[in-house]
Structure formats: structure tokens, C-alpha cells
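Hi C.,

You asked whether I'd gotten around to modeling the 195-residue construct. I have! Everything is below, sequence then structure, no commentary in between.
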Amino acid sequence: MPDFLMQSPDTDETVRRPCLSAAVIMRREHINNPWQPWRWVLADVVPNEEGFGHEPRLLFKDDTEERWLHPGFNVELSLGDAEGYYLNVTTPQPCFWVVWRMEEEAALAGEPIAVPQIVTLSYHDAGRWLDAQETVEQVPAPPDVLQWLQEFVDRHHVLEAKRRQRPQSFKSLQDRFGNPARVSTGKPSGGPGHG
């Protein structure tokens, strides 16, 4: 299997973003469920090759599964999301995230299929899409991609300085009702028996 081609393309005269070219493989698998006999899952993210062409195509089909190749995804790294990449590379299993949707009407096959929309390495992007209730799945990223991503993080991510916590002794005291409490360290004065 070829390695991912990682580069910094000239996408605009002023913007150069590191990116890699990827293809997504989606799998439809038979499940033992009388209401839904099939389900779609993300099978893999692989390096894109020229021979893949530009259109999705069926790779394999039998009675229990089918696999579709979706070529031509650019996975770009953005300086503004260095923390999202940092969160990915520091997890126990760094990964690609893929957002996919079912076709509303069958356009590629006899019935609707799952179509990937976006591929990312950003923890933040994945979280936003999950919050938007999109279907987001992940597959482990290979070592060459992790090294490339780690180099980007090392160059561009700045850990936020931890704010010094104010010592507890400087916090104002409150009584059980939330009102300011007074503490006196002087000698008691006045009153009976203190005279």
C-alpha cells in the first residue's frame, strides 16, 4: 500500500496549508436484525491514488457485504486548529475522523449508499460535527500520518499557560448563608466577665 502524500500545496497565493490526499472506503455489512438487515460503517482511510479516478465506485460485493471507494479527499491542516490536532496526537489511539451521510435518493447504485463528506485529523472538527448530530466515525491513522501531524503540532501548537490558582487563604470567608463572615484574632473585649 502506498504512503500518504503529505505536502503543502499552493491553494492560494497567500495561504499554504499542509495537506494529504486520501480516499475513503465505506462498507455495507449484513446484520442479524429483522427491521434493518444492513448497516453502513467506515472501513478505512487510505492514500489516494491517481488510478482511483474521481468518482465513487464499487470495489466488492457479495451476499454479506459490499465496499465502496470514495477518492479525492484533501485533509488540510490549519494553524487555527493546532490544538485540535494536538488533542488527536496525544490520545492513546490517534485517528482520522470521517463525516458521512446517506444519499437521499439513489444516485450511485440501485439504492442509497453512504457517502463520505469530510475527512479530518482535528479533534475539534469531529466534536463540532458530533454536536451537530452528524454521523462521524473514526479509524486509526497510520504511523507516517501521525509523524507528519506531530511535526505540525510541534511547530505550531502552544500549550496554554496554566493560571496560578489563588491560595485558599486569600478567598473571602462566607457563612452558611453565603454572607461575608468576620474572623477576629484580637482579645475579646467588653461584655460580662471580661472587664
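If it helps when you're writing up: Residues 41 and 86 are 26 Å apart (CA to CA).

Thanks,
B.
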